[in-house]
Amino acid sequence: MRIREFMTTNVITVSSNTPVAEARKIMTFHKIRRLPVVDKGKLVGIVSDRRVAEAMPSSATSLSVWEVNYLLAKMTVGELMRKPVVTVQQDATAESALALAQQHGVGSLPVLDEKNRLVGIVTTNDFVYRIMNPLLGIGKPGIRLHVFDCGTTRKIGDVVQAIARANLEIEAIHVDESPERESRDLIVQVNTEDAEALIADLRGQGYKVEIRPR
Predict the structure, then answer these.
(1) What sign results for the dihedral spanned by CA atoms 102, 106, 109, 115?
(2) I need a surface site. Which of 10, 11, 133, 191 has the fewest CB within 10 A?
(3) What is the pTM of this model?
(4) Which has the closest alpha carbon to 94: 139, 137, 138, 124?
(5) Is the pLDDT reported for residue 200 higher than 60?
(6) CATH label, 137-212, candidates 2.60.40.10, 3.40.50.10420, 3.30.70.260, 3.90.190.10
(7) Which residues does 91 contact at the CB level (< 8 Å), separation at least 6?
(8) Which pLDDT belongs to residue 65?
(9) How far apart are CA 156 and CA 205, in angstroms?
C-alpha cells in the first residue's frame, strides 16, 4: 500500500508568523494534534499540541491575565515549530513510512509530491486503522485461531491446507513472535463462527490450537 492511498489530504496548515494562541484554537476546533507550517508554499516546520501546551503559562504563574494574553499574542508558531521536518513522498510504501516515523520518533509525517509540495499527512492513527487493523483482522467477521509453534513455512502450509479442506477463507494471518517464547506462533482468522472441524483437523496433525479472543 502506498502512502497516497490513505493519507489525509486538504491539510490544515499555518504560517510561521501565526500566533501560538491562534494555532491552539485551530487545533482545538478541528480536533487535530499537529499543524504543518507553510511559508510561501514551502513546508518549513511542524508544531504539535504538546509543544503549544508546553509554551502556555502554568496556572501558578504570577502574571496577570492581560500579561499572559499579551505574551501569547506575541509568541509565534515559528518559535515552537520542529524543524527540519521529517517527511515522506506520496509514492512511498506504508512499511517504509512507518519505519521512518519510528526511526525519528515522530507521530506524523507530512507527505510531499514529486515537486516537494505538501499534499497530505499521515499519523500513527492512520497506520493503526489502515494497516494494523486489516493485518490483525480487527473489525472483520469470523474466528481467530492461535496455532502454537507454527512459524515455519512447512507448518504454515499445513494450516493453509487445512483451511482449504474446510472450505474456509483466510481473513487475516500473521506470525506472532514474543521475546518471552522461543517458538513462533501463527494467528489466523477465518470466515466462520464454527471452526470445530478445522480445529479438529489441526489437532489431529499434532498442533496445539486455541480460539483467541478478538
Answers:
(1) negative
(2) 10
(3) 0.73
(4) 124
(5) yes
(6) 3.30.70.260
(7) 2, 3, 4
(8) 62
(9) 12
